[in-house]
Write a structure and sequence with these properties.
This protein has helices spanning 146-150, 152-164, 175-178, and strands at residues 2-4, 12-13, 18-19, 24-31, 36-37, 42-52, 57-58, 63-65, 72-74, 79-80, 85-87, 90-91, 96-97, 102-103, 108-109, 114-115, 120-121, 126-127, 131-134, 139-143. The chain is mainly beta. A hairpin with a 4-residue loop joins strand 19 (131-134) and strand 20. It comes from Corynebacterium phoceense.
């Protein structure tokens, strides 16, 4: 794992969290219980803080960063899909940020929302709770039903189990083990 302090501030990671061996975590980052940071992801908190709640999963090749006046906050049970970017934004609990979505600085995503894959949430944009937002720029397309919104919680829980099944670094294979 590539875990670095920045200006004397070290990342703080709960013991139950999974951090992929090639994830990069820099500076004022806090990762809560049973959360996961998957392969190739970068969390860089150099000019502000990144706060990740419990049971939140950040999938492969995501980028989380901050602005001087905009911390990056992901509350509990958030799913961030592959290759998404969350930059200085606040994402409330039980939300799913789709693959390759971009959530820009000072934006706020309400509880139980779905940011569609490839969507771009503009700087300072507010997405209300239980909304489906899609497009470039992202627009609220409709309100999610309570059942649709609630489905994001067990979805995040599945990633807790997926993370627990990842091989620890000591079990990684050497090139000699996979040549044919």
């Amino acid at each position: 794992m590539l875990i670095f302090p920045f200006n004397g501030v070290r990342p703080r990671i709960h013991r139950s969290a999974f951090i992929a061996p090639n994830a990069t975590i820099i500076g004022d980052v806090e990762i809560g219980p049973d959360s996961s940071v998957f392969y190739g992801t970068v969390l860089r908190a150099d000019v502000g803080a990144i706060r990740i709640g419990a049971r939140t999963n950040i999938q492969d090749n995501c980028v989380l960063h901050v602005d001087r006046d905009a911390d990056c906050v992901l509350e509990d049970d958030v799913t961030v899909g592959h290759m998404a970017m969350v930059h200085g934004a606040h994402v409330e609990s039980g939300t799913l940020v789709g693959m390759q979505a971009t959530v820009l600085s000072r934006s706020h995503i309400g509880t139980g929302s779905l940011i569609a894959g490839g969507a771009v949430v503009l700087e300072g944009q507010h997405i209300p709770a239980r909304s489906l937002a899609a497009g470039v720029p992202a627009k609220v397309r409709r309100e999610l039903s309570p059942e649709e919104s609630a489905a994001f919680i067990p979805h995040a829980a599945r990633y807790v189990e997926t993370a627990r099944g990842q091989a620890p670094e000591s079990e990684s294979l050497r090139l000699e083990d996979v040549w044919f």
